[in-house]
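Hi everyone,

Forwarding the result from last night's run.
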Amino acid sequence: MTGAGGVPSEAGAAVGRRIGIGLMYGLWRPRVLGAWRVPSAGPVILAVNHSHGIDGPMLMGTAPRPVHFLIKKEAFVGPLDPFLRGIGQLKVDRSAADRKAITDALGVLAQGGVLGIFPEGTRGEGDFASLRAGLAYFAVRSGAPVVPVAVLGGKDRHSRLSPAVPPLRTRIDVVFGDAFDAQEGARSSAEGGGGRRAGGSGRRTRKALDEATVRIQERLTAHLAEARRLTGR
């Protein structure tokens, strides 16, 4: 389901949210903390740690707004292809600069939607130790605030379904952090020097993206530590 200009519509993502709510609350026991921190309107990027095979659907079912996730193209196989497209998810080729995925993701943000990203790129320890530059690019290019999200629990045991899936009825904690501007330091400096920049018109030089990546990693790592403290995970 697509909207204007071929960008996945929020209506499709809203259907995906309803499906996610049913599946996640039916199969596991999500505990959601800080959902009120997600801005109720306007473009937002959810930056999610990635250690479970259900992190994407879990966020779709627990976030307060419909989410369009960037998902690896390998997941779009067979009947999952039209299904994932229908619920507003974005296919991305991680082996190259996928211009269509970039355009679609920026289109979601331009229409005031919520973009979900796993900044670590692939499922791993889920500790934000290694971030790709894609998150910084979308944040700087769109001017959208970033909300860190920590998905915790269920890693100590695995279900019979898959090593990547927590056992059914396991409690999973989803902790949303405070929204922040990926260019907050650079933006303040520029404004102090008379170089005013509007949202969505941030610098996109390699230096600016590198600085934004470092800033983002610091905020995400700090949020993960706080989330673990709050949940005891």
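The two ends are 38 Å apart (CA to CA).

Cheers,
N.
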